């Protein structure tokens, strides 16, 4: 960001870390902004001439962009016009409405290297917008800039490090200057400092620190800033809101004052801290009904710190009467409680309780563990997956059996039975012993501690870091041999190309390989943990039109899969979910530690039925050759089986569901292959011995 806006405007712009990259590391809901202030406003109907000179070449070849309009104030970021700039002179065509001009020069690399000089040389095209840069601009100069600028040109205030505030000059002059005498003459600086402190207190509550030995827990990148603005018209159903890149206040005076008056913000930071909390919310432990709940984990910290500095009594969110009524409802419910349908206010009271019982560290550890876990082994497609992830992490972190307090609040009764049973298994796996405290936790309030609890908070006695316990077994071949059975085969087929023998079985009028194809050609890719293909076979490019199956056999089509599933369902008299489950083999880690199928909501049949059906589907996943790995958690080894069909489609079978799906993937993806042919015994009456004799004769 330039320290001085010259005339004509020339800005030296350092390439910044793409804010979406940092969001991925932090696991948060929304990214902060990676915009650079240009100092320029483009009036309606004017073109804009922009000259670009590269000072340091970027290692990733990225080019700078011009963004027209303020996120939220003019439109959301996905609708703002963006123009890629080339070296030399660029011309941006006239716009129908006037727009603030921002520069976006970003990189997905962790160490961006590029630097450019951007010149807005035709001074008749643009207007310099009012700009306050902390440490550079004086208050008087900023006031003069606002008075001289046209009313439609917004003003920008920044500390050059943490936040960018974009508001109409009239709002700044009305609520920030020359008012707030308590903080004059530097009340702009004090306001910027308050925003900085809200961010830093929130980061501390999330367990973020640059001194942490694990870079995953370092502070948000200094390249990315909090962007705060005012809407042009009243917001519907809200006074403030947050989404990608920004938080925004409605254009009503009482609410604008909460964002621009240091006295208001210092005295009651809840609204701003709440919206910043939305940016920092971690999706993996945020069920849909908790959107306005988990956002407040760190807001309480901000309120506590500010209240203490202002000499107020320790902050308690709800009064004693509220808590007396709440404990009475928990103890004597009039109907079966359902936490997930409670008001956001009541839902957060559960976390108030946890804060009293275990202290603020419970939220720091939770945030850290969620970052370390990332999306590993999570099914977030259903809300119950997020609920389970939250509840299980609270048990693991505290080291206590929290099922009783969960039941009192009504957290378990509506939970999918699979996840309820998973919580029971977790207690056993973690060897969490019963405690005399377990059945009185729900009686704790900020005003009372029931017997036999000692002085609170209790120390956390569970995990401090995340360890993935849902891992592929060390010896995958042993698991295949243990949990896959080929005795129901119709016969064996020998591939003349390499001599490999494949058991096959007749389903309806089709013969199917009972294992994945394991033929090595120029397009095949070995599974990283199974280089010989004895377990999973090979991966094959889904975009290839080549038939990789042996002569007389062909790639299974979507029609083949449909007919297979229909035949198995009818022939073995199964339900839809039982049918899909019966096709799998290799063991389920919900039941056995050495299973090839990872933990998930999808069913897995009893071994007797698996042996009888004999299809023996294994979760080899979908390989991405561009990254030499797996693009999503659903594509990972152990998460699902993917089979190449016609065109660029794959047939999907997941550990998360009991249904199959078909979707289009692209040329960088490779999947397993099952070969089929029209059955050589159309009436399906030949004996197994006859098949074997015929195959041996066929292959000599």
Automatic annotation (TrEMBL):
Q: Please state every residue range assigned to the domain named Peptidase M60.
A: 33-359
Q: Which InterPro entries match?
A: Fib_succ_major (IPR011871), M60-like_N (IPR035423), Pep_M60_3 (IPR042279), Peptidase_M60_dom (IPR031161)
Q: Name one Pfam family in it.
A: Fib_succ_major
Output the PROSITE patterns linked to this UniProt entry: PEPTIDASE_M60
Q: What is this protein called?
A: Peptidase M60 domain-containing protein
Organism, as annotated: Empedobacter falsenii
